[in-house]
Design goal:
single chain; 12 strands; mainly beta
Length: 210
């Protein structure tokens, strides 16, 4: 329950950020699988189309149906400045089950009519640093005037200099219409230094909000 309560400051922060980028949609995904569910919000937005400055927000909440101690949260908020086209230098904070830490990193993002790619390597600024790399690939070709295919992969690796802490590869395949995306979900999860692969099959729905 304490992890769920952490969403209150997140909700307030997300409300503030959404006002700064109110003209740009923010995708919110709900996934329900056979082992657990998740809520995911990830976006990178400039404060205005002409600005070099903006915000990167990542929120990933996993909730177990039976055991709240298996719940997991990753919350990251970074301010960035675009140094060269599509490449940004960022700094801010990250909150996980292990606590909160300052973080610095890079963000590369590229968006076209059909493709979206984002890569965010980061390092926690502490005596025993933790590293993470988030990568998102998305392919959304047009089927007709109202319908798009949605195929995406989202990969996360969290590790120290000595071992793996957490990794996952989440795949989605579905259809998008009028700001709603829905379809099938498949998650591969690995926890700890010598992990076994855990699977989670289900469905997802995603809505672009303003």
């Amino acid at each position: 329950m304490s992890k769920i309560k952490a969403l209150l400051p997140l909700a307030l922060l997300l409300f503030f950020v959404s006002k700064l980028v109110s003209a740009q949609p923010i995708p919110v995904e709900l996934m329900l699988g056979n082992n657990y569910g998740s809520i995911n919000i990830t976006f990178t937005k400039k404060f205005s189309p002409e600005s070099r400055f903006g915000v990167f927000h990542l929120n990933s909440l996993e909730f177990d149906y039976d055991d709240e101690y298996k719940n997991s949260i990753i919350l990251k908020d970074l301010l960035f400045v675009e140094t060269v086209k599509n490449l940004k230098v960022a700094a801010g904070a990250i909150y996980t089950d292990g606590g909160m830490a300052a973080q610095a990193g890079l963000i590369y993002s590229l968006k076209t009519d059909k493709f979206f790619v984002l890569c965010n390597p980061g390092i926690n600024i502490e005596s025993d640093p933790v590293y993470d790399i988030m990568t998102i690939f998305q392919f959304t070709p047009k089927i007709n005037d109202q319908l798009h295919l949605h195929a995406s992969a989202r990969c996360l690796n969290v590790f120290t200099a000595d071992s793996n802490l957490k990794s996952y590869q989440w795949m989605r395949i579905g259809l998008e219409k009028k700001g709603w995306t829905y379809g099938l979900a498949f998650n591969l999860d690995e926890h700890g230094p010598n992990p076994s692969v855990e699977t989670n099959f289900g469905v997802f729905v995603q809505k672009d909000i303003f």
